[in-house]
Amino acid sequence: MNHTIINIGRQFGSGGRQVAMELGRRLGMNAYDNELISKAAEESGFSKELFLRSDEKRSIFSMSSFFTSGTFGMQHSFINDDDLFKIQSDVIKETAEKESAIFIGRCSDYILRDMDCCLDVFVSCPIEIRAKRVAEREKLSFEEAKALCEKKDRTRATYYNYFTFGNWGVASNYDLCIDSSILGIEGTADVIIDFAKRKGLL
Fold first, then answer.
1. Distances in Å between the alpha carbon of 142 and those of 11, 15, 123?
2. Do the domain assignments include residue 202?
3. Helix axes 34-44, 81-98, angle to 10 degrees
4. Residue 110 in domain
5. What CATH code is carried by the domain that includes residue 44?
6. 44 lies in a domain?
7. SS3 for 2?
8. What is the DSSP string of 149-167?
9. What percent of the chain has pLDDT over 70?
């Protein structure tokens, strides 16, 4: 198989992560989601909690609270989103150079934009279907789940737009945009694999 990278952007509750995992299973490739956070924390020396709290969000944290060795030695030192983004970006780049892989979110399409072996995909789904799925998963009411989907999408859009100077979820940013509710998780994976083959990546 060719060296292939598949970057999956997704609306909250669209099943994008499940699609990525299905692709990984079929193609024998690692699908990275929270694993990226663990790798970034390990390589940087900062705690995993710091990356989790900043995951696809923008904020600022005190270094002394999260440095794994206990204290950083500077009472007023801070690590901001730009620092965390740089650390995580380096992990994504290093991983992409070593192996064929699937990356879920975290601006991976932008971070790896100079690699010609990438397929950039955005997975969407109507809000009603997403809210129903999230309500069942999180034990929420439909209205609560809908509000959560909309909040998560706004957060992801703000994060993506800030770091990429682009527009999250806009078709022109991706090679393929697909509604997962039409064909389901497995059918969506089928389309992505077929598209990748036609593009010469598989």
1. 17, 17, 21
2. no
3. 110
4. yes
5. 3.40.50.300
6. yes
7. coil
8. HHHHHHHHHHHHHHHHSS-
9. 83
What is the domain range of residue 74? 5-197
Number of structural domains found in the chain = 1
pLDDT per residue as tens digits for the range 136-160: 999 999 999 999 999 999 999 999 9
Dihedral over alpha carbons 137, 142, 147, 148 (to 10 degrees): -10
Residues paired with residue 67 on neighbouring β-strands, in sequence order: 46
Contact (Cβ atoms closer than 8 angstroms) between residue 106 and residue 16: no
What is the Cα gyration radius of the chain?
17
The CA distance from 181 to 184, in Å, is 5
Distance CA 76, CA 169 (A): 37
Q: Write the pLDDT tens digit of every residue in 98-123.
A: 999 999 999 999 999 999 999 999 99
- Per-chain mean pLDDT for the chain: 86
